[in-house]
């Protein structure tokens, strides 16, 4: 029986299969040509910044919403989106070899995992900036692939009374 990502890789399980250990699901990205491209391009030394994709918008909330209500609403929406699109809750982990990357997803029948994930991936910023400035700053502090969430949501005030969701 395969009980670890390393055993999964050495057992010849195809990249389209996954291993479940408790609530954690492991999938190795290595054998499929597209997976291999992602593996090479995601490394910090080759294709630096290649994986940075920004999707951002500016909104004006009318009537204005209290910071507490905004925080709660955004957190609930982010957790709901995780349910409908689990891809946003993937984490990349490095294997033993340089080109071994694993994508993991932790599931739960309760909200405990999703609430912790939302706390880790929702980034509230206080400084007013343009959307372009936020994009450039996020690219400058790109976090690489080792043991990080693959997606984050950055929320912060924009110029002229807008609110950015990036």
What does this protein structure show overall?
The protein has one domain: Chloramphenicol Acetyltransferase (2-Layer Sandwich). The strands form two sheets. The protein has a five-stranded antiparallel beta sheet with strand order 1-2-5-4-7. A four-stranded mixed beta sheet has the order 3-9-8-6. Helix 3 packs across helix 4. It is α+β, with helices and mostly antiparallel strands and 166 residues long. It has five helices and nine strands, in the order αββαβαββαβαβββ.
- Give the second-level CATH assignment, the architecture: 2-Layer Sandwich
Task: Supply the number of structural domains.
Answer: 1
Extended strand count:
9
Order of helices and strands: HEEHEHEEHEHEEE
Biggest beta sheet summary: 5 strands, antiparallel
Helix content: 25-40%
Query: What's the average pLDDT?
Result: 75
Low-confidence stretches: 1-16, 39-50
Report strand %. Answer: 15-25%
What would you say about this model in short?
This protein has 166 residues and is an alpha+beta fold. The chain is built from five helices and nine strands.
């Amino acid at each position: 029986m395969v009980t670890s990502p390393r055993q999964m890789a050495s057992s010849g399980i195809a990249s389209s299969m996954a291993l479940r250990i408790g609530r954690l699901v492991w999938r190795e990205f290595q054998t499929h040509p597209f997976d291999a491209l992602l593996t090479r391009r995601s490394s910090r030394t080759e294709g630096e910044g290649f994986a940075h994709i920004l999707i951002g918008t500016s909104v004006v909330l009318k009537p204005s919403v209290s910071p507490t209500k905004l925080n709660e609403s955004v957190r609930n929406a982010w957790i709901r989106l995780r349910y409908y699109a689990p891809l946003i809750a993937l984490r990349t982990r490095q294997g033993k070899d340089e080109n071994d990357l694993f994508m993991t997803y932790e599931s739960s029948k309760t909200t405990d995992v999703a609430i912790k994930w939302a706390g880790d991936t929702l980034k509230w910023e206080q400084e007013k900036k343009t959307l372009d400035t936020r994009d450039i700053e996020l690219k400058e502090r790109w976090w690489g692939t080792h043991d990080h969430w693959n997606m984050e949501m950055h929320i912060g005030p924009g110029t002229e009374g807008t609110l950015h969701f990036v």
